[in-house]
Amino acid sequence: MSIAFHCKNKNGFTLFEVITVLAILVIISTVIISQSGSFSTDVGSQTDILRGHLRHAQALGMSGSDSSDVFGIKCDTAFYWMFKGTDPDVPANIIMLPDDQQYNTNNDGKLDLAEKKIAIGTAFTVFFDERGIPYSAYTNEATNTPYAADLAINVTPAGEAAPVETITVTQHTGFIP
To answer: Is the pLDDT of residue 29 over 70?
Structure first.
């Protein structure tokens, strides 16, 4: 008995139809992915890293041996860096932040925001004393400027206006949610 495969009734799709449908799905998914991008993920993760850097500087300030051990973070809208002492612009005071060596493009301890693919719209400097309280200026324990309101740091994708991630440093306590 021989078995013959004769199909007189076509119930399936041709190979051409299957390839055409797959090509259309690839084009549609490419358009959707290119428009959504990965900016929100990059901004969210880089915002969390900056938040961690702020907390790290605060923890170092709180673990200092005396009131002269002030630590902080400064951002000039192109770079941000951690420092020890009352003058964040002195190269000897700059401390390399943990796990971000690849963004230290000038080998000066300052992290390049363009390399991190983020933008911080407003420059800021925050000093943390031995109690973790944030200051906008700090000369010594008696001469300092506490923040008059909470410090809000807005982070966006480089060259974009949205999405915006905000880090808040609470003025009196230094709490960083």
So the answer is: yes
Class of domain 39-169: alpha beta
Single-letter code of the amino acid located at 114: A
pLDDT at 15 over 80: yes
**Which is it for strands 94-95 and 134-138: parallel, antiparallel or unpaired?**
unpaired
DSSP, collapsed to helix, strand or coil, labels residue 111 as strand
Q: What pLDDT is attached to residue 127? A: 95
Domain boundaries, the chain: 39-169
- Name 75's bridge partners: 80, 124
Contacts of 23 (CB under 8 A, 6+ apart): none
Sign of the alpha-carbon torsion through 51, 148, 77, 122: positive
